[in-house]
Design goal:
Structural class: mainly alpha
Shape: elongated
Largest sheet: none
Number of domains: 3
Strand content: under 5%
Number of helices: 12
Order of helices and strands: HHHHHHHHHHHH
Helix content: 55-70%
Distance between the termini: 74 Å
Number of strands: 0
Radius of gyration: 24 Å
């Protein structure tokens, strides 16, 4: 099958499947993009990735676009426009400076879900990946609680704390304490073990900051507030014991 006939077949296949079988349409889009990659048409490849990034913004689609745009030599301008889109919702127009990419060869036929900028979840993920703690904190502070669609739950908060801990240790401590106390409030042994993991991180940072007394006071306060939770008290005592051993 020749290149042009293959492209026509893919285009027809996408049009026929996108609404009812989006997974098949996605596979066809990937096949089309791989054809352009074999041709080393990186501007077209980047434009295809940009279309996907605008329709389904995420760290994954952002990084795929980055890889293609870097090969096309246009990443700085593309990145600036994409970040502006994530912050404001304004989408760049193809072939209009400073947007350097042509129009996507495969326009979506289904309606895009509405977005509500700024897309703080994606902006946080990008800032973490790029090791930009100032931006992590900026968007974390603007993020709405329980933002839908993010890697919601304790793991996401934990990743934010890890990204902040070197530059903003007090903010990281506040997150880990909140996570630990939320797990303790669930009143079950499995949650207590999860809380212990966060408390160990609190201890590590306080020790690095030379605030061992703050750790002792915090642990004692948790023990007093939860003295009827026998399994939790045992875990807290173990943490206190480790502190003593480490100090020998």
């Amino acid at each position: 099958m020749g290149g042009s006939s293959a492209e026509q077949w893919i285009r027809k296949g996408i049009a026929a499947t996108e609404k009812r079988w989006p997974g098949i349409a996605g596979q066809l889009r990937t096949a089309f993009r791989e054809m352009r990659e074999r041709q080393q048409n990186w501007l077209s490849v980047a434009a295809l990735h940009a279309e996907e990034c605008f329709r389904e913004p995420s760290l994954q689609t952002f990084q795929a676009l980055q890889k293609a745009a870097q090969r096309a030599g246009v990443w700085p301008a593309v990145r600036a426009a994409v970040m502006h889109h994530l912050e404001t919702g304004a989408r760049p127009q193809p072939s209009t400076p400073p947007w350097p990419l042509p129009e996507s060869e495969l326009k979506a036929t289904t309606e895009r879900l509405p977005i509500h900028p700024p897309l703080t979840d994606t902006l946080i993920d990008i800032a973490i990946a790029e090791k930009r703690p100032d931006e992590v904190l900026r968007w974390y502070d603007r993020r709405k609680p329980r933002s839908r669609g993010w890697d919601s739950g304790w793991f996401a908060e934990d990743r934010v704390a890890e990204a902040l801990v070197k530059t903003y240790p007090e903010r990281a401590l506040a997150i880990w304490k909140r996570l630990a106390e939320a797990q303790i409030a669930l009143t079950n042994p499995k949650a207590y073990e999860q809380a212990a993991g966060y408390l160990r991180k609190v201890h590590r940072v306080l020790k690095q900051l030379g605030k061992e007394q703050d750790w002792s006071r915090y642990l004692a306060a948790l023990r007093r507030a939860n003295e009827r939770k026998r399994r939790l008290v045992q875990i807290l005592d173990t943490l206190a014991g480790r502190r003593i051993i480490e100090g020998l």
